[in-house]
Amino acid sequence: MEYKRNIYLFLIFDFLTNLSPLSFIYALFLKQQNMSLTQIGFIISVYQISKLIFEVPSGVFSDKYGRKTCAYIGQVSLIVFLISTLITRSYNSFLLISIIRGISFAFLSGTADCIFSESILKCFPDKMDYYMGIDKILFYCSIGLSSIIGGFLARYSYATVFYFDVAIQIICFIFIFIFKETRMFNNNQIKEPKECFRFFRGFDFFNYKVIYLILLPAILAICFLPYEDYYSVLLKSHNITENVIGFMFSCVMFSQSVFGICAQKINSKLGYDFSVRKLPFIIVTLFIIMSIFQGHILLSWLLYVCCASLMSINNISYNSCLQKSIEDTNRGTILSLRSLLIAITGMLISPLVGHFSDIYGFSTTFLCCGMICLSLLFITSILAKKI
Questions:
Q1: Cβ neighbours, 10 Å, residue 359
Q2: Which parts of the chain span the membrane according to its record (predicted)?
Q3: What pTM was estimated for this model as a whole?
């Protein structure tokens, strides 16, 4: 029953931790500090490089020493990053503390998911889709609410946004104490430091389904990672105020929560082959159309809502499909490997998008991202002929 309690505690924890307005106001905050889009791109890139370095080691650390220990490190790092960002003002300092942000994400990304998914598998293995759907709905609602709060607070002071964020993350830190550890092991199971390399030697590189599932988020990140990073700056360049930006972004998130409810029904009727393998083509095609009409704020925003809604169905289906396809013993490592590939994508794409947006504008830059993403989707879908 303690694992059942984990499920409900995690849903509250995930809602609170995603109530952070950081992702919404971070680029705007850096822009307010007189950073160019190219500089913002490099700051984000350092964050992604830090994630890249620590992702797989953090997953191995989680598999070896437990989920909660890993979560403690990640949550403390996040609080340190928020406080440091609030008090610093120089470009070099922002680069330095982005490393701390990367450490935080690396140690929290797969760990929290492991606690949730392993608790479900121990209690209700046949209800993975159901609980994953609830989690995603709460996730999008939380993000949507955070953008409204962030937009409202940012109209008065960006510092107030950070104070709010620090308070929320301290509460989340307390939640970690309450979780019951889900990674059960004894001394005979403690692996040697070389286990990371042994994992890669033992991995079935001909399991195209798992390889596709690991690669898919990184491919979609080529489009949506930089778009989410720069979206608030893009809207601000059209003289839209922070509270209106927050409302527009919240509508995107709330639409994702509504469409997330449909994921389980779609999977039961059409299967993962549609929601995980075919749906990304539709999403990226809409993204390309959205990029073409980027100068028309209302039309591009409506297309963004459509993209985000379909992404919600894909994300819920994808996470459920992946969790069912991997074992507990290397779950943390595989989830960290997935995040590592996303970090590589972000490390490469963020500074390039910032630089080319400074030169050619957002529309042309995002159009190129969409075409690259569509090409890679076509190649990888050939590998996974059926999910």
A1: 10
A2: 7-29, 69-88, 94-116, 137-154, 160-179, 210-227, 247-267, 279-295, 334-353, 359-384
A3: 0.74
